[in-house]
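Recall that a protein's primary structure is simply its ordered list of amino acids. Everything else, from secondary elements to tertiary packing, is in principle encoded there. The following example makes that idea concrete.
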Amino acid sequence: MMSAPIILLKEGTDTSQGRPQIISNINACQVIADAVRTTLGPRGMDKLIVDGHGKTTISNDGATIMKQLDVAHPAAKTLVDISLSQDAEVGDGTTTIVLLATEVLKLCKPFVEDGVHPQIIVNGLRKASKLALAKVKDIAVHVKKDDPSEQRSLLERCAATALSSKLIARQKYFFSKMVVDAVLLLDELLPLSMIGMKKIKGGSLEDSRLIGGVAFKKTFSYAGFEMQPKKYNNPKIVLLNVELELKAEK
């Protein structure tokens, strides 16, 4: 007869398996969903989060809130990773994907409690996924690339929809046009990470503007700068690999 295997675990490690562990995983994911549920949609509320260092964050963005959460449960961590992947790939829908995944788990919970095998539940979810994808393809809106005006209008509506739940929702039409202009300025080979943002204190949100080129955030710190012109048309630009700024004497 073969002896039972010996498994060595770290001190304080909790071991659990079977139906109670699956239910525990579902309950942990529901706690994560409850943390971001009230931030969903245009009428979503902001969350005030204070981390261990005392830094305060106010946001209703799902990805921002997920990054601030200190999650220890493995299943809940997986749900957080899913939302961060959604943010990295799409840039929107982080709260939606958390709530959608949690609702699916919530509906599966009674079947787990009744003793249905997890493989049977997973097979049902896979069939439901195929039906959902078929429905999405059926109602999908096709973009006509040969009509630039229609393509731009669709892009602006998509950007405005994504901004509806953000802090700048009131200026979503202003920023949606700016976002589309910024994306269309890029070549097909250039990544979206080439689009940068410079934050300058003062002014209103609608004072923001798009620079079709390279912008440097520099201040005038030399004597007599008040008399110098602040705007040059068609200047010649020299690229140097040395610094021309004066260093403060020690």
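The first strand starts at residue 47 and ends at 50. DSSP finds seven helices and two strands in the chain.
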